[in-house]
Amino acid sequence: MDLSQFSLEGKVALITGGSRGIGEATAIQMAKAGADIVVSSRKLPELERVAGEVEKLGRKAMAIETHAARLDQIQNLVDTVVKEFGRIDILVNNAGTTIGAMAMDIEEKAWDAVMNLNLKGVFFLSQAAARVMKNNGSGNIISVASVNGYVTNPMTFVYSISKAALIMATKSMALEWAPHNIRVNAIAPGYIETKLLNATWAHLSEEEKESVKAESASEIPLGRIGEPKEIADVMIFLASQASSYITGRTYIVDGGLLLKG
Ligand SMILES: NC(=O)c1ccc[n+]([C@@H]2O[C@H](COP(=O)([O-])OP(=O)(O)OC[C@H]3O[C@@H](n4cnc5c(N)ncnc54)[C@H](OP(=O)(O)O)[C@@H]3O)[C@@H](O)[C@H]2O)c1
């Protein structure tokens, strides 16, 4: 089999939330596939650590501190990448947040924090990057949605709404930008071992947390919580020529969690 179609050689990838978890794994896997990497999030020291790991793999790397829900910072991020690298081939909209609040209790500030990062920020960063990609003649945008875009539970109320809307935003952007040779897709992870997942159980003792985690893992047909790299590997497929005829789709990567309905 010719694996060169999975190569990202010569590509420039911009990854939000690149300081840890799924974003960090994506930076490393994309660098291994040949891409130069820009990582952004709110904490520069963590980003610089990831950029250092990318450089050890022989790729160019840059860390840019950015709050991914602030429109002025988003434009500055895109401008800086273009100034430094001359192009953006791949945008990974990975930064995301959740808040544990029921529909009866949620306050405007919490609603805005989740929607502004998970939806509004994703759209306006995609728009800014797409304008650059249009001028370059091609581009690839991948967003991280969630299985919660398909199913909900009380504590993930606003998070689920934001991720469901992100799945539709993916379709809408894909349709509008296909004539510019810009593909737009998403991945909907199930339970993945990261700080965000563990924050869901932050109110529990270590012992209770381990027990709830084991219970969650037992509900997954593949019998375990996923690793960030298992999302990053699907990202390589979607960012590469191997998926050249796919746009507007969201790939569920959940160990079979949603099969049970
Ligand atoms: N883990 C799961 O089980 C799971 C399941 C489904 C979907 N997801 C999605 O996967 C994506 C990545 O999450 P993760 O699990 O890898 O979580 P994580 O380890 O907590 O990483 C979240 C990343 O987002 C960054 N971030 C948070 N708020 C930000 C902001 N306002 N501006 C810029 N960057 C921000 C964080 O860096 P800073 O703190 O430095 O800003 C960090 O790099 C999210 O969109 C999440 O909804 C995760």
**Percentage of residues assigned to helices:** 40-55%
What is the beta-strand fraction? 5-15%
Q: How far apart are the termini?
A: 36 Å
Mean pLDDT: 96
Oligomer: single chain
Number of domains: 1
The CATH class designation is Alpha Beta
Element-level helix/strand string: EHEHEHEHEHEHHHE
**Please, what is the CATH homologous superfamily?**
NAD(P)-binding Rossmann-like Domain
Structure description:
With 261 residues, the protein is of the alpha/beta class. The protein has a single domain (3-192, 228-260), classed as 3-Layer(aba) Sandwich (Rossmann fold). Helices cover 46% and strands 15% of the residues. The chain has 8 helices and 7 strands; from the N terminus they run βαβαβαβαβαβαααβ. Strands 3-2-1-4-5-6-7 form a 7-stranded parallel beta sheet, sandwiched between helices. Helix 2 links the parallel strand 2 and strand 3 (61-65). Helix 1 packs parallel to helix 2 (44-56). The chain is globular, with a radius of gyration of 18 Å. Bound molecules: NADP nicotinamide-adenine-dinucleotide phosphate (NAP). Residues 16-17, 19-23, 41-43, 46, 66-69, 94-97, 117, 144, 146, 189, 191-192, 194-197 line the site of NADP nicotinamide-adenine-dinucleotide phosphate (NAP).
